[in-house]
Amino acid sequence: MTAVRFEESLARLFAFERGNNLLTLLALAERARLSQRIPDWLTRKADGSVRRKFAFDWLGPQWIKNIVPLWEALRAGSARDIEGSVRALISPDRHGSDLEFALRGLIEPLALLERAQVAAELHDEMFNHGIQITAQTAVKLARAGDWQHVLAILTSSHQRDPDMSMHYSIQERLWRHAYLDGLTETLLPRLAAIPFDRSLTHAKELRGWWLTVRQIRAGNSAVRVPVIEPDQQSPGYVEAAAIQIAALAGDPSQTSIVEDLRRVLTPKTIKVDSPQRRLSFSMGRTAHELFKAEVMIAAKRKDHAQAARLARLPSHDPFVSAVNVVIDALLEEGDWRGAAMIDEKHDPRERPVMDDLDDDPLNEYRSIQLAIAAMAARTGDDAAAQTFLRNYALSDAPDSEASADDLNIDEACPWAATVLAGAAEGVIPRRFIALLLPVFRD
After folding, report:
1. How far apart are CA 189 and CA 210, in angstroms?
2. Separation of CA 296 from chain center
3. C-alpha to C-alpha distance for 125 and 265, rounded to whole angstroms
4. pTM value?
5. How many domains would you assign to the chain?
6. Does a structural domain hold residue 249?
7. How many CA atoms lie within 13 A of 18 on its CB side?
8. Residue 22, domain extent
9. Considering the domain boundaries, does residue 123 fall inside one?
10. Gap between the Cα atoms of 62 and 257, Å rounded
11. 3-state DSSP call for residue 317?
12. Which residue, among 88, 142, 89, has the nearest Cα to 111 in the 3D structure?
């Protein structure tokens, strides 16, 4: 397998109109100081013929002469310049959802160009027009590690709409990336303080418990979970008590508090009936939270022997495999070596499919390999990143007998190969790896 060079790989993405987003390709060219190549890359197809239109994400093929003004505004213009350029590309009868989708696609290239301030201003301008791109903007900038502007956007949104809701899955992604970036004591308290979902009972308390969980997980021994009787517990308490138990287990001086916390964690089960799938079972949420907590503490301590032992146990949730819980926890700590060790011992393609549930072992394997490759690159191990990217590519090769020597990785996974080549050559800062590739299992 020949090594991939960033410039050649990026040129290939332009030639075949591939990649996440044309504007992201342009931003990568700008970062790599390859701006002089852009006119040729935009106007030449792979066969050398002249191209006048380019596939432009949500809008389909667009005249290149109309794309260039938007790119120039994105690269150096103001938020209002960018808004005007986007509107010029969209016919008036399609300004509604098309405009929102268009704006979402601008955040990634703006982050790459280190224009997060403009992204924040664009977000605020659109909010004033009734177009909300808060979640997408916050998550993209979080993945880029630009937390100053993430907080600015979230705070601004709440000030404009005090009753604004933020879906749990979005908040969970923000918290996950903040934890990965090691911002448990500095940023997470500020995230927890933004009063989203004020209309929901216990929303504030829930965020408080989220913060407690991550502080204990990160090793803050000063944080303690109180013993609260079952009828007084609010959502999030069980998870917090479970992580406290896991963190203190094995310390003889803490036996009493561990016992008290275990006493108030009364088993809670959920009955699930699915006649269509001929499924009927009960699942214990308390047991699952205790299991997850053990996994998280083992992952934080890089106790790979304990992680391996836990991966062989039941997760107490029929929808979630113990192996995936362990791999997720290790990746959240940035420990791609530990995740790779567990994955090697429990290859998804060789695991039994969970009872009548929709499993795709190949996609799961590929998801894990790509996340490990991205995390390895994020931490500076480019050789390991290439190894796992090869695993990812080979797993989907048409010839099941193919080897790495037969593989053209630039063709098999052009986007990921380009990003990893850019990181290895120093063109793409490693903090942007999580913006451009998934560092967690899908």
Report:
1. 10
2. 18
3. 47
4. 0.92
5. 1
6. no
7. 17
8. 1-164
9. yes
10. 65
11. coil
12. 142
184-233 tens-digit pLDDT: 999 999 999 998 888 887 899 999 999 999 999 999 999 999 999 999 99
The pair of three-digit structure tokens given for residue 125, joined into one six-digit string: 């301008």
Query: Is there a contact between 18 and 54 (Cβ–Cβ < 8 Å)?
Result: no
The Cα 37–Cα 105 span in angstroms is 23
How far, in Å, CA of 74 to CA of 86, rounded?
10
Task: Concatenate the DSSP letters of all residues of 55-120 into one string.
Answer: E-GGG-EEEHHHHHHHHHHHHH--HHHHHHHHHHHS-GGGHHHHHHHHHHTTHHHHHHTT-HHHHH
- State CA 350 to chain mean position distance: 26
125 part of a folded domain: yes
Residues 6+ apart with CB under 8 A from 419: 374, 377, 428, 433, 436, 437
Residue that the structure tokens 């060079």 belong to: 5
Tens digits of per-residue pLDDT, 39-70? Answer: 999 999 989 999 999 988 777 888 999 999 99
Burial class of residue 386, CB neighbours in 10 A (0-12, 13-18, 19+)? buried
The residues with which 255 forms a beta bridge, in sequence order, are none
Given this model, what pLDDT does residue 402 score? 63
pLDDT, one tens digit per residue, over 91-103 is: 766 656 678 888 8
Asked if the structure places residue 83 within a domain, the reply is yes
Which residues make Cβ contacts (< 8 Å) with residue 167, sequence separation at least 6?
Answer: 135
Show the tokens assigned to 185.
Answer: 């004591």
Print burial letters for 258-285: b (CB count within 10 Å at least 16), e (below 16): beebbebbeeeeeeeeeeeeeeeeebee
